From TrEMBL:
Name the UniProt record assigns to this protein: Cation:proton antiporter
Region: Disordered, residue numbers: 223-248
Biased composition regions of type Basic and acidic residues, renumbered to the chain: 239-248
Protein's membrane topology: Multi-pass membrane protein
Record's keyword annotation contains Translocase: no
Subcellular location(s) of the protein: Cell membrane
Length: 248
């Protein structure tokens, strides 16, 4: 209850700060576009700075900076596309997001470099079986059960629901929060356990979802219609109405 009482205010501050910053900046860009005060370069820079601004504002408010940045992106996109919905104006140019995508790619490379260092450290210290059990659970039941509950009442089949839950990779978010926990906790058992759990979970996800995703998908969906019944069978070659895109 103490942890929950600490987390809720952090999350509420993040929701407010992220929404206000994202919506306000997008509205200002729309106004500047109508007045022809912006160039393509300035829009690219603003798009890059906006989540950093949300991060900084939320830090000053003592809120959850990552939730704020995520909400900021949602609010920014919604308000930025408001002229398209109202007047049928042209959509924001794809080049507006080029700078932030390139920066994101570089930051992701750096993050995986530090993750590799954490893997080496974890393997040198040795692996404890309770930590391995926690990682296995995080990649299976802890992931699958909430997904199955979330799909209650939907039109997806049980195989499709299970596939969405099974093909849920643990990557960037797990690394970020794992390193945050490692840096925030005092040196010792708790910090080391957080680091090792994060490292083994992500490493297991790389192996499971990187090497086994195709096998998992095939085992849950079965062979393609053409392979199962041939070109002359009923429905052969027709796309499934309930195909699930699990790339996210």
């Amino acid at each position: 209850m103490q942890a929950l009482g600490t987390a809720v205010p952090f999350a509420l501050k993040a929701l407010v700060a992220g929404f206000v910053v994202g919506a306000l900046v997008a509205w200002l860009i729309n106004m500047a576009d109508r007045a022809e005060w912006m160039t393509e370069q300035s829009r690219r820079i603003v798009v890059l700075v906006t989540p950093l601004l949300a991060y900084t504002v939320t830090t000053a408010m003592d809120g959850n900076v990552f939730v704020a940045s995520f909400v900021c992106g949602i609010a920014f996109r919604y308000v930025r596309q408001a002229p398209v919905r109202r007047r049928g104006a042209s959509a924001p140019h794809a080049s507006d997001f080029q700078l932030i995508e390139d920066t994101n790619s570089m930051a992701t490379m750096c993050m995986w470099f530090f993750f590799g260092n954490a893997v080496v450290l974890a393997m040198e210290e040795g692996v404890h079986w309770p930590t391995v059990g926690l990682c296995v659970a995080a990649l299976t039941v802890v992931r699958v059960l909430p997904i199955m509950l979330a799909f209650l009442g939907s039109k997806f089949s049980w195989q499709e629901r299970l596939m969405v839950g099974a093909l849920g990779p643990r990557g960037t978010t797990s690394i970020v929060f794992g390193l945050l926990a490692f840096n925030a906790l005092p040196d010792g058992l708790y910090a080391d356990t957080a680091l090792y759990a994060m490292t083994l979970t992500v490493l297991g996800s790389v192996l499971l979802h990187g090497g086994g995703s195709v096998a998992i998908a095939r085992s849950l969906t079965g062979p393609p219609p053409s392979a199962a019944g041939g070109p002359g069978s009923p429905g052969a070659g027709e796309p499934d109405a309930h195909v699930v895109d699990t790339r996210g």
